[in-house]
Amino acid sequence: MLDLNISPYQFVEKKYNFGFKPVVFYDDDTFYSEGDEVGVYLYQDDQNEFRINAYYDGLEFVPTDEYQNLNKRKWSILAGASYMRITSYGGFKLQIAKDILSRHNGMVLTTSYLAEIKSNLWTFYPEFGLKRNDQKYNEYYYGIYGGGENNVGNYNPESSVNPYMSLNGIYFVNNKWNIIFGFEFNYLTNQLFESPIVNKRLEYDFSLGALYSF
């Protein structure tokens, strides 16, 4: 899958990160893989899903040569659990996850609404929600410490609640091949936008690829 990320950070060499990543979709009612997320079902029926899962958090900050005194911020893996209530109006999901690579030891709590919309050969999956980053998460990815990194200034953010929306879709080509796409917008509230290393309110992520069914 081709992936394009537009970063909210300044002082970086690449505002637009373009790359290729493999994705796997698999579900046998015990184990599942959904792109960047993998996990197991603890319980599921027609209206409820309990999962233990882990997902890739690709947020990164790699400063330019001029600002090498700024600390790098690396991507991480977050693991935890989720519950989704399935209704005739869509799904209502609650997920909690913690950094397991000891990058920041922070936690993210997500609440969201998901739906499935079918139209001829297309299937769309819109999602709207809120992400609550705790203080450890925000200090690592948006904080400035140590007496002012490279004269940029100190900044110690607290926890934040940030809205986001995404839309994923599948176009049915034949029994073996499908075209898939996705995009996501994350809105940075003041706790994050006021960081000296940030100069955009929105973070964008776009993806496009082909899915082969075995």
UniProtKB/TrEMBL annotation:
It is found in: Cell outer membrane. Its main location: membrane. One of its GO terms (biological process) is peptidoglycan biosynthetic process. Keywords: Cell outer membrane, Membrane, Signal. The keyword Nucleotide-binding does not apply. Belongs to the MipA/OmpV family. This is MltA-interacting protein MipA. It comes from Acinetobacter equi.
